[in-house]
Amino acid sequence: MARALSPRRQLVTTLAAWTVALLIFFPVLWMILTSFKTEASAVAMPPQFLSADWTLENYAEVWARSDYPRFFWNSVVIAVGSTLLGLLVAIPSAWAMAFVPGQRTRDLLMWMLSTKMMPAVAVMVPLYLIFQRLGLLDSRIGLVIVLMLMNLPIIVWMLYTYFKEIPGEILEAARMDGASLWNEIVHVLTPMALPGIASTMLLNIILAWNEAFWTIVLTTTKAAPLSAFIASFSAPQGLFYAKLSAASAMAILPILILGWFSQKQLVRGLTFGAVK
Amino acid sequence: MSTQSSRFAARLMVAPSVALLLIWMIVPLAMTLYYSFRLYRLLSPDRTGWVGFNNYLWFFNSPDFWLALFNTLALVGGVLVITVTLGILIALLIDQPVKGQGFLRILVIAPFFVMPPVAASIWENLFMHPQNGLFSAVARGFGAQPILFLEQYPMWSVIGIVSWEWLPFATLILLTALQSLSSEQLEAAEMDGAGAFARFRYIILPHLTRAITVVILIQTIFLLGIFGEIFTTTQGGPGSASTTLPYMIFKQAIAAKDIGRAAAGGIIAVILANIVAYFLMRGLGRNLNS
């Protein structure tokens, strides 16, 4: 609903909008700045902006600590693994619901979403005991399974709303032209479904990467991803502010960049197509 | 194109996700229900048995429980009020013809992608820390005593942190909805002499109803389970001042190692979520069916 404004009002709104946006972003910016300061500079009072001692030391040191790359790698494996596994299960389901809808498809979708309403703490105890029995505690495969199940309703919903927009007539037209099922899938369906699948994948990698309940409850050291590592990282009396900031920056930057690319799809995806 | 055989194939394709979600829901929930009536402490594993509703009664008789219940609802309600109100205001602002709108959106959306422990640790250490935090530096600059955020106002601090994380989501969705509002309608209203407030109240707000509904529904689902932020900052303290229901259950399971009590708490959490969901669906369901 953008409308023309007088130049003066435009200047005022531009300034106001930029101020608000910078305020919202400031904590992230401050963390990134702190990550490049020496520890002394990071806690100096009054806070140092331009006069700080800048250094890359924190990143080198955090990375060199033998365990950091492992947490990072665990995050990658768990986020990507659970998302791919989820897609594998969800694509056929969403496909069938979108193109061969039954009378209960709508109810089924609502039921799937309602499983998200179940608080994780409610199933924490049995899951912990089951994992203990199966030897899955503190294992990456265990977390992959749990996060896959946790995000499955969202994956199915998102794919469903994307698939729903592929016109069914195109399939029929292709079939009339004598396309084989294989040709139909490779040349007609896949190109049309791919953007939806890609956005779903992106958003779910983000959700899984940032998950901070199961990762804390079900891991200790071996399989702990970054979210569990940062949660337990204590900074006694500000001794490690710069290193903590560097570790945090490395934990969020990959996802921040992915997120910036997918912000448009985020709205559609997380609202299940209800807001466009 | 739905013949008998294609419908059968469709059922087959839907079956795996339905089966997985059914197992994911029913098996642990049944076990939780079972344990909630048992005496089961990991520290004294030999003493087990049925205890009826004792585990539930322990919760209802504990003053901490009612505080946790209140905190849980205050967290959900507080964050919803803050994010929806500020979200509308910011969306209205960004929707104006502003220079560099694309980059603005990138700045505004950023907090949503910050994982909860990192968000919490930024605020706890870099901003709210009584000695080294930026807030205390500002307070001292004005000659005031630094505020002890996490000690004196733990629940408000957690609400603030979580609001910061969810504000981008609300803003982005409301902004998307705003952009589909036709400017002709607003201009027509303006020519008819409708002031800025009247235009907001009678044209913009009704147009946003659906988006606001979606924001409330989705956020509530995630907010009821908030955990990482509390775990990282206050650990539920001081005392139990910032303990929510999920955190109280976590403490029973992990710290007290009382499986029976934690299970009973889990069932209570399910009931609470159902009550909230029922009222949400009743109050908001109408806005979605269109």
CATH domain topology of the largest domain in chain A = MetI-like fold
- Oligomeric state of the chains? heterodimer
Terminal residue distance of chain A: 14 Å
Distance between the termini of chain B: 26 Å
Task: Report on the biggest sheet of chain B.
Answer: 2 strands, antiparallel
Q: Give the tally of β-strands of chain A.
A: 0
> What proportion of the residues of chain A is helical, as a percent range?
over 70%
Total domain modules of chain B: 1
Radius of gyration of chain A: 23 Å
Low-confidence stretches of chain A: none
Question: Strand order across the biggest sheet of chain B?
Answer: 1-2
Classification by helices and strands of chain A? mainly alpha
Class of the largest domain in chain A, according to the CATH hierarchy? Mainly Alpha
Describe the structure in your own words.
The complex is a heterodimer of chains A (276) and B (290). Chain A is mainly alpha-helical. Chain A has 13 helices and no strands. Chain A has two domains: 7-60, no CATH class; 66-232, MetI-like (MetI-like fold). Chain A has helices at 7-35, 39-42, 57-64, 68-99, 105-114, 124-134, 140-164, 168-176, 181-210, 214-218, 226-232, 241-261, 263-270. Chain A is globular and about 75 Å long. The two termini of chain A are 14 Å apart. Chain B has 290 residues and is mostly helical. In chain B, helix 2 crosses helix 13 (259-288), helix 5 (116-127) packs across helix 8 (154-179) and helix 12 packs antiparallel against helix 13 (259-288). The two termini of chain B are 26 Å apart. The relative contact order of chain B is 0.14. The chains are: A mainly alpha (276), B mainly alpha (290). Chains A and B meet through helix 1, helix 4, helix 5, helix 6 and helix 7 of A and helix 1, helix 3, helix 4, helix 5 and helix 6 of B.
